Predict the structure of Guanidinium exporter.
Amino acid sequence: MAWIYLIFAGLLEVVWAYFMKQSEGFSRLTPSILTLIAMLASFGLLSVAMRTLPLGTAYSIWTGIGAVGAFLVGIILLGESVNFTRILAAVLIIAGLVLMKVSSSH
């Protein structure tokens, strides 16, 4: 179950990052509230996952999902640029996540 909590925590990290961008520096109420709700849920699920997963593994996976997810959301929803270097960076992050999972005993 810890891995499922961790994946959802990472996905919620993407959600709060997106709404934080939409909040325009917390100057828009609805996106600001959604940011805070998603943050609390993300942190809560991360903390539950950390009950059984090692800190380094859990935190690395959480931030990796958030980083790659935010990268994809930026491209798909916000029209951010795509180039070889950015794609390579995302692939390297994913490779690191896979290695973290493979090396974990949980």
About this structure: The chain has a mean pLDDT of 95. The chain has one domain: 2-103. The two ends are 10 Å apart (CA to CA).
